[in-house]
Amino acid sequence: MDADNSQPAVAGDHYAQVIVVGAGFAGIGAAVKLREADFDFLVIEKGEQVGGVWRDNVYPDCACDIPSSFYSFSFAPKPDWSHFYARQAEILEYTEQTVKRFDLCNQIHLQRELLEARWDETKNEWCLETNAGVYRCRFVIMACGPMHVPVTPDIPGRDSFTGTAFHSARWDKQYNFDDKRVAVIGSGASAIQFLPVLRKQAKHLTLFQRTPPWVLPKMDIPVATKWQRRFARFPFLQRLLRRLLYLQFELLNSGLNRPAIVKRLQSAAMRNIRRGVKDPVLREQLVPDYTIGCKRILQSNTWYPALAADNVSVTGGVREIDGDTVIAADGSRHVADVIIYGTGFEVANPPIAERIVGKSGDTLADCWQGSPSVYLGTLPEECPNLFMTFGPNLYTFSSAFVIIEAQLKLVMRALTEARDQQVLAFSVGNRRNRAFNDELQQALSKTVWNAGGCSSYFIDRNGKNSSNWPWTTFRMRRKFASFRLRDCDVSKS
To answer: What SUPFAM superfamilies does the database record attribute to this sequence (predicted)?
Structure first.
């Protein structure tokens, strides 16, 4: 993408009325809406191209687990998705196409990493220090994404490993897996995609999993050319498909609190295990001991057949690493040429909080102390004129685009009201924020995420669920739509 990357390394302050941090889907969506509303804005992005998580994750068979027609902007449909579940390269291409379609290239400054965002009380504006100079703005939208910083576990002896090691989000494209002994640590959403590919190349592959996931079958089929043409010629067909998918995911969300639905989902997952694995001992290793939905529900048709292959073995978590050997929790030793960490991302405590300094002079991370508390997952206390996209407690089993577009309506309404009413600064007060989060945590206590019997990345270091939205996205959209600046403490010029 030919975004504007022509600025000198340091050339004084850049100013815009609104600055968006991050050029993944949330940042691109924010830019589209800001342009439509005629705001003066810029987007700063630390990478060399747009795309966010779809730029960074390039491991084999990387793909979406939400249907393509639903995993895209409602205002920027793509009729020619090649698969019902799009692959990484095609999704990345869609981000670039969307930027060009809405003529955003000149507003996006690449290779601009945010080092610190500090609220300037005297000027009622944000000062954003980057690796390429200072940016200033009245309003800032933090579109940094929830799956941004890879987590690599602090395993004893990790640094002693004599082979090659990398996280799945930092894939080594040059590494040749032919005839290698591969250790995969983690069995989450990334591992179930790349492991079936690697096991065909490797001499032997060992999976180290602390907790097996629930994995449903995946309707992973190509989209016929005739249907691509129909979607292009009759856009209402794709809008209808999108609406049906939305309702299906809403039913899934609400159904996870109904025992009959949960039982049917677990039965489908058990059938998936039985189809792919005939060995009763291995089957036993792969059956989770928690309720489906407690962790992220995964989908794959190749995961279980891959684990049943002759050159694959499955064991428990890792106790330590000693030179070229990975030692499992049961004491078994496994020599490896390469270790791949499929251990996910920091989700419950957004790392960007360490770089945001609000009115109090403390970082958001210091204020939160490991348990984020944000009004509607969008407006943090002590941070006037700042919005977070996909912030704390907004994750649910639906398309990220439902959440992004609901948030963008809230953001744009607030920005437009602030412009029309000549508001200098606004922020959510402690009482309103506390009341919302108390209600949210009470609702979460009854959900499968909290009461399903698992330990997941949804739970923060203090044992609080700082990730999930306990209600439907119907309710999310209604609640966001009802937001007005009168809900905030406001100062005017």
So the answer is: FAD/NAD(P)-binding domain (SSF51905)
